[in-house]
Amino acid sequence: MSRKERMIRALGMPEDVILRVPQVELMGRGHLRLDHYKSILEFNENRLVVTTSQGVYTVEGEKIRICFAKMGELDVEGVFTSVRLGGDSA
Amino acid sequence: MIRCVNLLLGRGIELKDLRREEGDVLAWISTGDVEKAASYAKKSGCHLKILREKGAPYWKKHYGNRYGFLVGLILLCVGIFFWNGFIWNIDIRGNKTHSDLEVRSRLAEYGLTEGTWKEGHDLEKIKNSLLLEYPEWSWMSLSIQGTTLQVRLTEGTPPPAMNEEGDPRDWVADRDGIIYSIVTTRGTPMVRAGDVVRKGDVLISGTLTIPMEDGSTQYRYTEAAGEVYALCSQEISLSQGKDYIEKDYTGETVHELLLQWGDSRISLYKPFRDLEYADIIEEPLGREFSDFLGEIPGIPRIGLIRRTYVLYEPIRKTYSEDQMKVLLGTALQKERDRILEEESGVLTEESIEYRGTEEGMEGTLSMKMMIEMGEEGILTPPEAQEEES
């Protein structure tokens, strides 16, 4: 844990906001919301790979599309088969 | 390609509905960001192509300098606003005793008709005036919803008519009969149940006899009123001829063409043959001019009529006695029902007698019925009553 993290915890400040820790919100198998991502590495109908401060997130499935995208915020729809932390294992 | 997307997002450009299609990336971006996006795309070695445009900025870009269109749009809005300023429909509900037409004509007197300007009507005042005018309307509401004037009515039970005393009079028998019951509401009863009365006899006298303390008698006069029920007899006689003609239809029909001009008719084509024994059927041929033009005042109805003669051979026949009885019986009963309906009477007794005549048969129906008896009569002064008695 870095000094910055320790200080934020000690002060009771929200980590996700200050440290821009990625947040993943998955609704069922069809809707995913990802905050505090850094950049998109790969995107097609079956796969979305993004980088965050905590590493790589991979979403796999069918008919994947990004409903809304802006800096640090992604709203994704599709039929997901897996959402995992980590890069390409396939 | 992904580098370009990251660059756009990193520069604060928002992307919507981002998807891959055959190697391309499709997305919706704001019109204001298009130029920026194009330069960033160029930097990242990609080419930005606009496939479709929509929304207000697109309309402004394409039609913003078309002033005619703009003026038309403004005129349309003004027209709609102007159109909404009028009453175009009157919806009347709840009226039972007064027709829609009557209510409309009353509203029209206050200036509320279709096609009038909505503003400037004091609906509350009009409502109060109408409620005063029609006491049978217990509640009323007038409101304008959109372009419709909504009239809602609730009719209450009408108050009983005041039985105001009129000029002094007697209540006299309007026919012969036997009194069944008498209830006097005003005046002095002159008959009792079971009395036989002749037409013109006083049933209830309008003279009130008041005995005074000194032994003398004073008279007051009133409008005699009451309910008198009596049993009355009536006879109905009808006759039935024995000869009649039976139609033997030949199956042959003949047509005649007529021109209708108002109430008069002109024959355009008449067949040259004897049409004495034929049933006549008339039907309009095609449509009248008024069907197309409507009823025009001063212009008579014009149209063609086809008259069809259905020919028959007359066969002279004679009714049997039983047939004549049936026919006479039916006709007598029909006449009896008509009289009972007219008199609002209740049948208590009846008998029918048939008598043969040279021409056929004559039938007489004798009946007794209970009716409400009496009519207004001239007041008989007490002296005359004494003389009569």
How many E-type strands of chain A? 6
User: What is the succession of H and E elements of chain A?
Assistant: HHEEEEEE
Largest sheet of chain B: 5 strands, antiparallel
Provide the structure class of chain B.
alpha+beta
Shape of chain B: elongated
Q: Percent of residues of chain B in helical segments? A: 25-40%
Structural classification of chain A: mainly beta
Strands side by side in the biggest sheet of chain A: 1-2-6-5-4-3
The chain pair forming the largest interface, with residue counts per chain, is:
A-B, 14 and 16 residues
Low-confidence stretches of chain B: none
The average pLDDT of chain A is 85
What overall geometry of chain A do the principal axes of the alpha carbons give? elongated
Radius of gyration of chain B from CA coordinates: 44 Å
Tally of domains of chain B? 5
What kind of oligomer do you see? heterodimer
CATH class membership of chain A: Mainly Beta
The total of helices of chain B stands at 9
- State the strand order across the main sheet of chain B: 9-7-13-19-18
The ordered string of helix (H) and strand (E) elements of chain B is HEEHHHEHHEEEEEEEEEEEEEHEHEEEH
> How much strand of chain A?
over 45%
- Strand residue percentage of chain B: 35-45%
Secondary structure topology:
The complex is a heterodimer of chains A (90) and B (389).
Chain A: H1 3-11, H2 15-18, E1 23-27, E2 31-35, E3 37-44, E4 47-52, E5 55-70, E6 73-85
Antiparallel strand pairs in A: 1-2, 2-6, 3-4, 4-5, 5-6
Chain B: H1 2-10, E1 15-21, E2 24-28, H2 34-43, H3 56-63, H4 67-83, E3 89-93, H5 100-109, H6 123-133, E4 137-145, E5 148-155, E6 170-172, E7 177-186, E8 188-189, E9 196-197, E10 202-205, E11 207-211, E12 217-221, E13 225-241, E14 243-261, E15 264-269, E16 278-285, H7 289-293, E17 302-318, H8 321-343, E18 346-356, E19 360-373, E20 375-377, H9 382-388
Parallel strand pairs in B: 3-5
Antiparallel strand pairs in B: 1-2, 4-5, 6-10, 6-20, 7-9, 7-13, 8-10, 11-12, 13-19, 14-15, 14-17, 16-17, 18-19
Helix pairs in contact in B: 1-2
